[in-house]
Amino acid sequence: MGDGYKQVLRGGSDPLVFFKYPGADGGAGYSRGHVMAAALAAALRDGETVVLGANGMIPLAAARLAQLTHAPGLTIIAGASGGVNTLVEPLVPSSGDYANLVAETVLPFEDVLALQMSGHSDVFFAGGIQIDRHGNCNLSVALDNGKVKLRGPGSAGLPWAARSGRVLLYSPTHTPSVFVSQVDFISLRGRHGSESPST
Fold first, then answer.
1. Euclidean distance between the first and the last CA atom of the chain, given in angstroms as a whole number
2. Which one of 30, 137, 146, 192 has the lowest number of neighbouring Cβ atoms within 10 Å?
3. Element at 35 (helix H, strand E)
4. What is the DSSP letter of 123?
């Protein structure tokens, strides 16, 4: 982005509008999605370039919240769609959704990959069907007694995620089957090493 680049957001845009849940109007007024987006937003810094993975609704909400609060110079790249600082409202579940093309500009997918592979993204958001205590992430296969219990989409863009300055792991599902002591397959290796199986 050049020196003259200026962030443009639509007035009144609510980055958390997608996280309504039954009874929210009469209850606490927030959901797990709100809490996760706020926590992830706090981890983002002004001036960073953020790349979203495929399941990008919670990270997109976090990045938009950061832009509207403490990080107005944050640049968001909606992964597979290539939308830069997407203005979609309400938020959509996937970064590959065509709605993300309503943006300040759109990058071809090969440019998004080149940006990641060259180490020019500051933050990459990654989710997984399993995440372990070492920060290893599994998007490929979950096993039960050596038999396939669940197949994921495969490693997708995770091999290049490690080239980003930071990788923020998240999961919308908080269960013991997601947060495990050791992943069954490593799609993305944690930065602190592990005793987990090899990829």
1. 36
2. 146
3. helix 32-42
4. E
